[in-house]
Amino acid sequence: MSIAVRPATTDELPAVFGALARGFGFDPDDDDPDGSSLWALLPAERTAIAFDGDRMVGTLGEYDLHVMVPGGARLPMAGTTIITVAASHRRRGVLRSMMADHLDTVAARGDPIAGLWASEAAIYGRFGYGCATDGVDYTLPGSQVVIPPPPDIAIEIIDSGAAIDVLPAIYDRVAGRPGMLQRTPARWEHEMLRDRPHRREGKSALRHAVATRSGEGVGYITYRQKQEWERVPEGTVSVEQLLAADTPVRRALVWFVAHIDLFPNVKMWNQPVDDPLVWEVADRRQLVREVSDTLWIRIMDVPSALSARGYETDGSIVMGTTDPTRPGNSGSYRLDITDGAATCSPTTDEPAVTMDIRELGALYLGGRSAVTLQRAGLIAGARPAVAHLDRLFRTAAAPWCPEVF
How far is CA 219 from the centre of its chain? Predict the structure, then answer.
């Protein structure tokens, strides 16, 4: 079997979307049977489709994204996505062929990093992706939210027509954590606010509420409702997005969804791992938390990627990396940090610490402990050197990626 990988033609995009639907087990929505909303964000030339002869047997694409990195810069990132392999062609090297083509393309274009959300956590480490961020899902009785909203913050429900005009500006003002993506108008229209029926799972259409202070939008929440009755109302509010400028705004938005009549239960998807809600509820044992991996980072160019982010601790270190799938990344690099800005360059000096490129990706956004990775046998070096590496890379605020791509 010979697998050929090439971009899809425009005429082939409906077939690509059909393969995507089969791979992920969903039925296309009646109002978008060919995936036009997807192709508005992902042009044909940014796909890598695998063929066995004339048969399409694998799909892959990459969004043109920009991600916030420590220090506040927004870095170009190839957003690896729509990966499927036909059930008839499992374990035949289709994924490896597509990933090799994809990473070659990203490297040739000069993107310093690539990123993805993994459908299965065991797949992408072999291609150099490291798990850089986590998110926390909450389930709790709304009655456990006991801190009332500040009087200077007002909550207003808005319809979907107003949401497209109001929410983007709020997001741009408050999106300050590493891992958060820049959202283009097209991404807002075709992804963030597109209410796909197959995603409702028996719940309501998407609702939107905005928090204002002194007339300025300072946060928003999007959610769905599901009505349930067992003699008494047992409905659930499911939060999909919660963005807030500060703690008082976040508390006001959480209070709002926690105290909607007839809906005493709250589920919140993918909140930051350092979210303080567990310290704010009346009884922490009533708050069920589930942690999941979210954004995975693949370092494509070590000097460019490490020089582009900021650092909260100054210092220097020589690191060794191995990159089996892109050997040009393997070697030693000297990282020098002064006043939070870094230079990184290849060196012949002996490395103080060594790691696979995937562990460097895991550390990149500041949310992982190099010391923990050493304990897991994934970083080598003397303990003081690894502790120094940890201090250099860590950030005070946990990185967070509040959207799937």
Answer: 20
